[in-house]
Known about the structure:
Layout: E1 2-8, H1 10-15, H2 18-27, E2 31-38, H3 42-48, H4 58-65, E3 70-77, H5 80-88, H6 101-105, E4 114-116, H7 120-130
Antiparallel strand pairs: 1-3, 1-4, 2-3
The structure holds cytidine-5'-diphosphate and magnesium ion.
Amino acid sequence: MEQTLALIKPDAVGQGCMGTILQRIEKEGFHVRAMKMLRLSSKEAMAFYRVHEKKPFFESLVNFMSSGPLVALLLEKEDAIRHWRSVMGATDHTQAAEGTLRRQLATALERNVVHGSDAEDTAREEIAFFFSTREYI
Ligand code: CDP
Ligand code: MG
């Protein structure tokens, strides 16, 4: 079994899409091992997205990610990292495949409703960023 970190970003929470996304997570067969709602400080958002700190979109991304509550989920499933990213769709919602969450719900390149880890090492780091081991079910 593989684990990945999923986020329901502040735009999705604000749009009232939490339920739609959680329903899809269950329908796709992921086990939710941990879940919490929280608001990141801008410092925390900077730390979470530090790989993008040199990118032109970094400051705006940090403002967006700390603009309101988000939901963090520890998802478990065979091939969870790849599977969750395929359910999310491409970063740019206009390029995302039909039936993906981003195609269905995103409103801008930045406001693309969900996050998913992109590899085993980043998944481990991102899970530890949001959860302590005693929060896993
Ligand atoms: O989220 P994903 O792994 O698909 O994409 P990323 O390249 O790791 O970028 C992280 C996030 O930055 C994206 O999900 C977008 O919210 C945002 N972004 C942006 O605002 N403008 C871009 N040109 C690229 C990404
Ligand atoms: Mg990424």
